Amino acid sequence: MSANIKQDHFHRAALEIGQGGENDTLPYDVDAQFVKDNAGNLAAICFGLFQSVEARPKKQALDLMSGLNIGSERLLTATGSHGFRITTKIHPFWNLYLNGLGIGIAEANEGRRSHRVHSYRLSSDENSFFDKGKSWRAYKEATLSDPVIEEAGAVVVQTDISSFYEHIYHHRLENCIDDIFGESSTVSMQVDRILSKIASGRSFGLPVGGQCARILAEAMMTPIDASLSDAGLVWHRYVDDFTLICADQQNAYRALSTLSHALADVGLSLNRTKTTILSAKHYGDFVRAQLGEGEQASIALRELDLHFDPYSDAAQSDYRKLKESFEAIDIQFLLDLEREKSQPDTFVLAQISRSLKFQDPKTALQLCATLLDSKNLDAFRASWSKIMRGVYAVRALAEFKIVHEHIDELLDKIPAEASHLLTPETNMLHYLRIARFKRTEPRGKFVRQTYDQTSSQSVRRACIDCWGYWGDRGSFTRLRNQWQNLSADEQRMLWLAAGRFGDEGEHAKKQLRRTLEQVWQIGFEDDGQGPTFASLYRDWANNAK
What we know:
Helix content: 55-70%
Structural class: alpha+beta
Low-confidence stretches: 306-317
Number of strands: 6
Number of helices: 27
Mean pLDDT: 89
């Protein structure tokens, strides 16, 4: 079987990155817009690299991939109320390349997957990776409608895989990809080399937050899913969550043992603290509560479909329909309910945050004031990214201009009153994305202090982005004079910002232009053979508005 990676896979990946961002745990980065705007040329460069690797003898292909510098940065991300995990920001070219390979893998693997898998099914819509109808909610509803659950005495096992993405072993994943493409293909080797570079040489773990990681995890689970069906189990899976439906307690124990063995064979294990066995009735009651049934105050909010497509022919009517739906829901009442809980419902908070842009300005401001109050924000810390995305939408839209000044006052209080919440780099990135709308004295001091103290290239880029938006000439001049000491990622952001500083910016770009091809190169460029990542970014930034 030969590899079936096409240039269209990279093109589709570029458009998806431009639409949704390069990593769903991080705020939308300007690099994602660059990738979208240059989708055709970047896809051609990616496909050229793939063909070059694929055409080489295996040893030479391995040497080429092993010699490439694949830039990435590990960032701390808050998860839940008290936990943290690592997410990975990958260089925009390599993120695109990996996602393009991922689409090819997903296409080739989709027909091999069980209908009992409800996570990340490949979409037939070219504008998105995954079928939006396949969701966690659809997974739970499928378990409730499974015929076996209606049998007398039926019991249900709920469990999940412990630290799933972190424990995926690269070599086993490589074997799974070989099963899809055949051992003559270099696809598995290329994925393995890229993952190894991103993981700093470690042989396990997927980069959390990117689309390709989801595809690779599903490819890893496909043979395990098949073995469960072969063993006669009735099961449903969503990513690392499993539901086993069994005739009785004895069979539930056997099923759990079978699943544990299947996972152990590939170095994975179940989370013992999250494994429960319930009667079918108790499970049904529990899941209906999870889905919002019985909670009349929030059921309407839970059921609202916020996945409308702004590019569809019916976009405006869809938007109006959603706006009208929110008029029938007392969002402030629901938010006040969550504020009183010891464990706020993250799903409800996410929906409230996503609803902000559908409110009238006065209501939006009231909701933002509640969400951004330092005491409430601490209680809602598990939903930080969702809240910041919602507030960003209000601050970005002209129809809310009347409340922008009040929003800015609320935002300026956060570094002083809730500085601990800015410790994880991803939290800081979400905050800086909103801070760039307006320079205030507190923000000016905060951004300068943050830039000087952080070791994160991503955070430093976000600070440069703020200075560019503010037209902070002093900061631009200072960094221009430190150009040789800046990372390539910082240089690209400063180059983009230079367009906002008139003659001084143009003069700086003329002086620095000759250095770009060398410092921004990916590492496989052919001299004089068409556009490169560096030349595309340089030209795009020169014309960016």
